[in-house]
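haha ok so turns out i had the wrong file open the whole time. this is the CORRECT one, sorry everyone. sequence first:
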Amino acid sequence: MIAVVGPGDTDDASLLAAAEQVGALLAQAGYQVVTGGLGGVMAAAARGARHAGGTAVALLPGDDPAAANEGSDVVVATGLGQGRNVLVVRSAAAVIAVGGSWGTLSEVALARRLGRPVVWLMGWRVEGPDDEVASATSAEDAVVQTLAGLR
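then structure:
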């Protein structure tokens, strides 16, 4: 499973198209996609995975499974609020972040603390002692870098 994280409240067409393509490419490569299950980037990635014949897992912050986006195949209502970000990154072998928000940054930080590879597309530049948050130039590049990081 690979996590796709990003702003849930965005209507930026370029971010949404990139997230949908990332979801589709991951599904075509045989990976399940895990997201936070809500709107924006999460919904787009789930939609892409589903349209490509893959599976999208939604780990919701609230208690209501009906809050999940329509592209989600497996829904877990965690009731953990933002704490569900830990579950999203712990359940994934790697993380692709699309766009930037404070929630996305928290997931990137958690993933790096857990030693998960992270590739950021159209997001913030993160500099740190390990400089292990890769930047991607396209959805294809993000997926290629992510899969290479798993080998």
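Strands lie at 2-5, 33-35, 56-60, 74-77, 94-98, 118-121, 133-136.
again sry for the mixup
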